[in-house]
Write a structure and sequence with these properties.
The protein is α+β, with helices and mostly antiparallel strands. It contains two helices and seven strands; from the N terminus they run E-H-H-E-E-E-E-E-E. The protein has a domain at 2-59: Structural Genomics Hypothetical 15.5 Kd Protein In mrcA-pckA Intergenic Region, Chain A (Roll), CATH 3.10.290.10. Strand 5 (51-54) and strand 6 (57-60) form a beta hairpin.
Amino acid sequence: MSETIKLDQFLKFMGEVSTGGQAKILIKYGDVEVNGEVETRRGRKLVTGDQVLVNGKTLTVNLYSREHRNSPPSPPCRGARGGGNTGGKDFTI
């Protein structure tokens, strides 16, 4: 079975919201898109490759399986916060 993360959890993890309540409001009022379509379900399960548009930023979901959690860390993410890249961002959870 492939790894998933719920949309509201992803927004919190990525720092786009500080609370689940904030995520719920953004999602409920249609301020979040997944793969180019407005998503109003906060429990929407995201998989690797999904594109999430929020706060004017496109975030690419990149999950890894549980068996790889004890593997050596991945190289740094492209477009990580604090960098000069203002385009799409890839992050590994």
